[in-house]
Amino acid sequence: MNINATLIAQILVFVMLVLFTMKFVWPPIVKVLDARADKIAEGLAAAERGKNDFAQAEKRVADILAEGRSQVSEMVANAEKRAAQIVEDAKTQASEEAARIMAQAKADVEQEANRAREALRQQVADLVVKGAESILRSEVNPSRHADLLANLKQEL
């Protein structure tokens, strides 16, 4: 291989091209590449923040749902307690009303029994008076008296 002036000229032109490229061409390209790398890094950081925000939002939603479920469970439990209390109150009122009705019915039956006894006493008294009148009006005769008493028993 011969080293001649063309090869030296080519080496000088190549070195000048490399220097020119390093001084004028390379910095704008590096600047654009750095800007793009920064943009990508910002995008990745934003994606990471978004992922973290999404995870926090999911956690908050889960917490809110859990709280809502607990409130619903509490409300259902309160409603069931209230329903049981209403049923218990209704049973108590019904038993009180039944006791009152029973007491009223017993009082009515007792009153009717007293009326019937009083009416029966009145009838017996009337029959006794009639029997006494019949005995006093008729002559004193034991067989007659026995007949009158038999008739009186049949009337009773």
From TrEMBL:
Among the GO molecular function terms of this UniProt record, one is:
proton-transporting ATPase activity, rotational mechanism
Instruction: State the source organism's domain of life.
Output: Bacteria
Q: What broad class describes the main subcellular location of this protein? A: membrane
Transmembrane spans? 6-26
Keyword hit for Cell membrane: yes
Q: Which UniProt keywords apply?
A: ATP synthesis, Cell inner membrane, Cell membrane, CF(0), Coiled coil, Hydrogen ion transport, Ion transport, Membrane, Transmembrane, Transmembrane helix, Transport
Coiled-coil ranges per UniProt: 99-130
Q: Where in the cell is it found?
A: Cell membrane; Endomembrane system
- Taken from the record, one Pfam family name reads ATP-synt_B
How does the record classify its membrane topology? Single-pass membrane protein
Q: Which GO terms describe its cellular component?
A: endomembrane system; plasma membrane; proton-transporting ATP synthase complex
**Is Secreted there in the keyword field?**
no
Q: What role does it play?
A: F(1)F(0) ATP synthase produces ATP from ADP in the presence of a proton or sodium gradient. F-type ATPases consist of two structural domains, F(1) containing the extramembraneous catalytic core and F(0) containing the membrane proton channel, linked together by a central stalk and a peripheral stalk. During catalysis, ATP synthesis in the catalytic domain of F(1) is coupled via a rotary mechanism of the central stalk subunits to proton translocation. Component of the F(0) channel, it forms part of the peripheral stalk, linking F(1) to F(0). The b'-subunit is a diverged and duplicated form of b found in plants and photosynthetic bacteria.
Q: How does it assemble?
A: F-type ATPases have 2 components, F(1) - the catalytic core - and F(0) - the membrane proton channel. F(1) has five subunits: alpha(3), beta(3), gamma(1), delta(1), epsilon(1). F(0) has four main subunits: a(1), b(2) and c(10-14). The alpha and beta chains form an alternating ring which encloses part of the gamma chain. F(1) is attached to F(0) by a central stalk formed by the gamma and epsilon chains, while a peripheral stalk is formed by the delta and b chains.
What family does this chain come from, according to its entry? Belongs to the ATPase B chain family.
Put simply, this protein is called ATP synthase subunit b
What species does this protein belong to? Snodgrassella alvi
